[in-house]
Predict the 3D structure of the following.
Amino acid sequence: MTVFTKSGPGDAIDVAVIGAGPTGLMIANLLGVHGLRVCVFEAEPQLIDFPRGVGMDDETCRTFQAAGLVDAVLPHTVPDQLLVFVDRKQRDLARIAPSTGEFGWPRRSGFVQPLADRVLLEGLGRFDSVDVDWSSRVTGFTQDADGVELAIAAPEGARTVRASYVVGADGGSSATRKALGFDFAGISAAADWFVIDIRNDPLGRPGAYVCADPRRPYVSISIPHGIRRFEFMLKPGETEAEAMTDEFVARLLKPFVPPTAPVDIIRRRVYRHHSRMAEHFRSGRVFLIGDAAHVMPVWQGQGYNSGIRDALNLSWKLAMVLRGQAGDQLLDSYESERREHIRAMIQLSTWVGRLVSINNRAGAGARNLFFRALAAVPSAKSYIVQMRFKPMPTMARGALTPVGSLSEPTPVGRLFIQPTVCTRTAGSVKLDDAVGPWFTLMAWNNDPRAILDDDARRRLERSGVRLVAARPAVQLHWDEAAPDDSVLIVGDLDGSLKRWFDAHAESVLLLRPDRIVGGASRAYAASEMVRGFDLAIAAPVPERVP
Ligand SMILES: Cc1cc2nc3c(=O)[nH]c(=O)nc-3n(C[C@H](O)[C@H](O)[C@H](O)COP(=O)(O)OP(=O)(O)OC[C@H]3O[C@@H](n4cnc5c(N)ncnc54)[C@H](O)[C@@H]3O)c2cc1C
């Protein structure tokens, strides 16, 4: 059997991805966008086809956008899905309904994972250089200085395949992680949960409700396309075998659905929440992403989203290294940039899980009082409603440069906003679509060519950086277009860009393909900043000066 069915036998693989879950499929798409030769090896004969992750955040929507697939996935989402934590008597404890969209997408949407996974799979069909081998289990690998040899077991027999790099996206029980000998330290929750997915949603209400009932906490969520998800905490002594019976399910559903109403169950499953992170995410040419690298309770819906963040972070770095635009040490920044953010997500998800799972009346009463007191303070209430508690990527170390940054806190290492802008050819377009999927150097109120010296310009050219001049939309046409199209003029349609630059001391930004600010400076220091960034991706990762 050949590895590449599209491009013919014998082709070398740049990246072998183990696992066709959402993180493996996403990184394959992003690598495809960057033109790399990729093969995804999946042990199963097809995609896993039942609802799993149910919450998609704005960062993940933005990553689907980067992969060119956001229009295809949006029909499988509920934008701005309300998330309400209620007490036993259905009184609000915390209502999460963010109204902002600073990154270009709703801060939280409900979604159907198998359909989003299918969008990712179908997206791979756009690339001649990307393929998926089904029923192909990776059973081992050995690496040397130039690449990795993978052993594949498939129905037609065993074979070996060689790749420059390997991405282990093989889920929570990752054989890749085990083969690398990495510890998966952390904790597992004390109680099991029982999940039931029902077709033809018997309730139909659009939100997601988490009821912190100390007698039996439960979750009721509307999933797109007529699915209702219930999750119930199992009590001590309730076994998995008992939970799977129709009688048990009928007893749990009785308070919600009258016995006469039809209930079309598509999935029932007992599972346990884990809070664990791999000891390392990289060993030589092999990386771990997604559940293979970390697992967390579902309470913030961040297991899925964290994996998508991993895929985005690693993808452009692999592309740079494989194209010879950066040294292999750039790949170390994947772990140094992702680790603390994942830890924060695990901690938040674990903490929320503990609050929801309190199973004694006194503890639940104290928790309810605490949340009512918080809700009485407008700033605290808004903090929760607007989801400002969600840890945002804040990278202190990695492919970043402190050179030229003056603001405190620095915008470097943080996600840049995504307003809707205009260009000379598009009346209204999201910023990322306007500037494209690679690096951008954006200057406010300046032509970047005029403020950069020859050396900085050459460095940017070498890495294919897009030069962007941002200005108020009314100024869009005031001067001649650059004859060689070397600068993209971006008009600030709704004032979001100006407000951002008003709030910061810097006026020139180097935006990475993952839209993290890699460097920021005033106009006079732009060339130094560019050289600083070049060094950061070429040399061992420096500590950022606080
Ligand atoms: C059963 C289950 C239920 C879940 N329920 C929820 C939920 O209710 N809410 C929520 O937010 N999240 C849930 N999650 C978590 C969420 O779905 C995950 O965070 C997300 O799917 C992680 O994606 P991934 O690509 O990292 O791993 P996975 O989706 O687990 O994909 C890993 C893939 O790797 C393949 N694979 C494994 N080993 C090999 C090998 N050796 N060779 C080739 N292929 C291999 C597997 O077959 C699988 O397709 C659930 C996960 C699972 C597994």
Q: What stands out?
A: The longest helix spans residues 332-356. The chain has 16 helices and 26 strands.
